[in-house]
Design brief:
278 residues; alpha/beta; seven-stranded mixed sheet; two-stranded antiparallel ribbon; 9 strands; 47% helix
């Protein structure tokens, strides 16, 4: 399998995206569970299938582009509204980058690190190792690339993120990812209760870091990506419950700007897993 990954990493992006789009539709047709979840989540958010049809292919593109992202040559990525990042750095505070499961979220941190890590230090991200040893090795190498520091999804990782923010550096999170039991709280997401991480809000509240929204959209025909950055419309609340809800609403608004590339099949409303005790 590692040899296949390395072989695919040499493919042009347009070919990987073409293959991925086909695989996305195969998965959609073959899995009734995935198809029902995709359609139910999109409907809950107010979208008909015609409005999110393209997301079927984009789910496959997300998988097919991974070998190139992890092992291949750097990919073209334009950055829109970089000024909001510069303002945060100028204020002397750290930055919490938040991106939903939309577009090429793997590339978001790579593009930001390439632009700002040289002047402001590495961007710290949480990292949960894969169960397969060969994939865990690839992911460890890929995510600890220049300008990016991957830390474990445990208390030591949280401490490292806090330390980075207090030093005025940046961290990256996927706030619409379901956290383990005890690390989140139930909050509305598109009108339905979803177990939501509190980590993003707590990091910002405890350090005074700026919260920036990021989405990395794929351009058509493998012509690269566009990383779009935004500030929160209003300052983050200092009350945890309100802040968690506020971030969920911010994710809804971000998804609403490009629903065609969101992972509607992600099990956003599942029960949280119980972490094994050491």
């Amino acid at each position: 399998m590692p040899l296949i990954f390395r072989f695919l990493s040499l493919w042009p992006l347009w070919l990987l995206h073409g293959l991925g789009a086909a695989l996305g539709w195969v998965a959609f047709v073959a899995s009734a569970t995935y198809r029902r979840r995709f359609l139910a989540h999109a409907q809950l958010a107010g979208y008909g299938f015609a409005q999110v049809r393209a997301a079927v292919g984009h789910a496959g593109r997300m998988v097919a582009e991974l070998p190139r992202l992890w092992l291949g040559a750097p990919l073209a990525c334009d950055i829109v509204n970089a000024e909001c990042v510069e303002r945060a750095w100028a204020a002397g505070r750290g930055i919490v980058f938040l991106t939903p499961h939309l577009g090429c979220f793997e590339l978001s941190v790579q593009a930001a690190a390439q632009r700002w890590a040289g002047a402001h230090g590495a961007i710290t991200v949480l990292y949960r190792p894969a169960r397969q040893p060969w994939l865990a090795t690839i992911m460890r190498t890929a995510r600890n690339r220049p300008g990016v520091q991957a830390v474990p999804t445990d208390l030591s990782g949280v401490r490292q993120m806090l330390k980075a923010l207090r030093r005025g550096r940046a961290v990256g999170l996927l706030p619409d990812q379901v956290p383990p039991e005890g690390q989140g709280q139930w909050a509305p997401f598109f009108g339905r209760p979803a177990y939501t991480m509190t980590l993003a809000a707590r990091l910002a509240q405890q350090t005074g870091a700026s919260v920036l929204l990021a989405r990395c959209e794929r351009r058509a025909w493998g012509r690269g990506y566009t990383l779009i950055l935004e500030e929160l419309p209003v300052p983050l609340s200092d009350q945890l419950d309100a802040a968690v809800l506020q971030l969920n609403q911010a994710m809804e608004a971000t998804i609403g700007q490009c629903p065609q590339q969101y992972l509607w099949g992600y099990a956003r409303y599942k029960q949280p897993r119980v972490e094994a005790q050491a």
